[in-house]
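Hello again,

I reread your note about wanting to compare the complex against the isolated chains. To keep things tidy I'm splitting this into two emails, and this first one only covers the full assembly. Below are the input lines as submitted, including protein chains and any nucleic acid or small-molecule components. They are followed by the predicted structure of everything together. The single-chain runs will come separately.
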Amino acid sequence: MSAYKSYFLVLFLLINGCASQQMSGSSQSKQSSSSSGGMPSSSSSSSMPSSSSGGMPSSSSSSSMPSSSSGGMPSSSKSTSQGAKSQDDSNQNNTTMSSQAGSSNQQLGQSASSVFNESLGDFDKEMAGERDIIAASSQGDSSMTAQEIADMESIMGADLDGPIDISGDLGNDESQGNNDSEDEFTGEMSEEEISRLPSCIDIDGSGEDKIARQLRVFAIKEDDPNIRNEIWKQYLKHMGIGQSEIDKCLS
Amino acid sequence: MKNITTFIFFVCLALPLLSLSETIKYDKVKLKRAEIEITEDRLLDVGIFIFDPNIPEDIESNPLVFPEIRKAEARYIPYHLKNTLEETGFWGGVWMLPDNTKAMDLNISGRIIKSDGYDVSMQIGVWDISGKQWIDKTYKARVGQSSYSKRRDLTQDPYQSIFNQIANDLQKIKIGYISKDLKRISEIGDLRFASDLIPSVFNDYLVQDKKTSVYKISRLPANDDPIMQRIADVKERELLLLDTLNEYYAQLYREISVPYEEWRKSNRQNAINYEELKRSARKRQLLGAVAILGGIMVDGDSNASGYAQQGLMIGGMQAVQSGFAKASEAKIYKESMKEGGDSFDTQAEGLLIEVEGQTLRLTGNAQEMFLGWKKLLKQIYTEETGLILEEDSAQ
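Full-complex prediction:
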């Protein structure tokens, strides 16, 4: 009976030991996954704690840059000796990368250099992701640079210094090339000017925007039929007319 | 005879006032560019801090200084300076910095003193990483109308003369350094960066002159020092972070460039009109006062002196009156500047909030990573050398 008792006792102790080993094992793997590379993954870093941003107040107020930090690195380092490290790690906040890196290093037996290398890789990935986001937002950004605007205006012939006086020709001040008004072009045209309009283009210029209106004005003013034809092509393209219809219209 | 003398005296007094019209000289400084590719040993990495917007504490008494515009300028101007320096081809990488860093060989800081589209003035300080000052100078320029022309090369900012002048001055100083000295600056930079990460190891590699505060190298690590290689890896990540941050600054630069130029252009015209009217008002008031004073002082019993006295008094009063009229006309332009400024100020505020939010988020997160690397580097050093590092004291 006592042999049975001893057997059950040993069995109980063995089971208990396995359970505790399993528990510590699961805790290791959890930490290793959370600390892969000792860095928060790029997905978790996208929602960074606001407290972290408080570390660099100088970014918002550039006039007073603290000399205590250097490029995101505070100079007041908390270096510890190897012996004291494990105690420090356990005391530090688990959310910081440094404590994750330290504990994973200990528990997984990973060398500090491999954790370091992994964390560099993670950082690179995070920065690459960040730059992808910036590139995507830049692509979606409709704002143009001064150069782009100037290029566009230069194509449209709107970079001339003075306003283009076509009031005499077209009988309406609002149709001036550089006029900022968005009013529709409704000026009366001479017979010669009407004759320069391709048959497919409305005489009243309905549906035109500023650029189309400018192109119409330049086309009507152009004496060289070939150049005029080219301007009308640009006009029709701008108005969203298909190539076949353009060719048909200008033939 | 006495009357004539008095009259001549007052005319002489008034003449300098009449000749107050000034000949305006607009500055055009050409940028010096590298004609051949610069060898790597002569390239320095340059960091430009976000400028000090220099917003007066008493903003009420400075109604023509717009805080948000100044803050936007404090980011726009260094970014354009970065572009200008890159354009010269004389430098290595050029970054705009949100904060202090030891990753750069040369650091540029600036303070905006005046910027109204017409007159621009900024204080510029440049130091290399050894602590030696290269430049401490106030740059000023008066901006001509042609600087805002749409037919100009639009990569050139209306304030381009100042940017070109700074770039040319920097190049002039750099020419004075032999390649060995420039390399030494970079080496000091590497050691200061290393010392920032593991002070207990690398502090001894540098000595700081007590008088000049300039750093000198006392010894160099081995070329194949593995810990220096890892420190170089961290430095590379700092530059990567700066690259990313600079993408955000570039976005702000692009978004703000058109409205900022429009504001400067219209503000310039208003500033000219305002200054002109103010000067004209002051001139008239002074002339009037001189004439009245002359009228009072004219002495004599003759008819001529009586007429002269009367003429001077009436003319003087009219001049003073028209001076006041000009002054109130000037106020209209001042109001116009204020209105235009307020409008762009609001626009700039929105753009700034966005970019600053992103900067804070990125730098805050990176700060944690850099702290982690500092700890890991110490661990690695101990693992590889067997030396136990002492507690680093705060620098």
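For quick reference: Residues 66 and 341 of chain B are 6 Å apart (CA to CA).

B.
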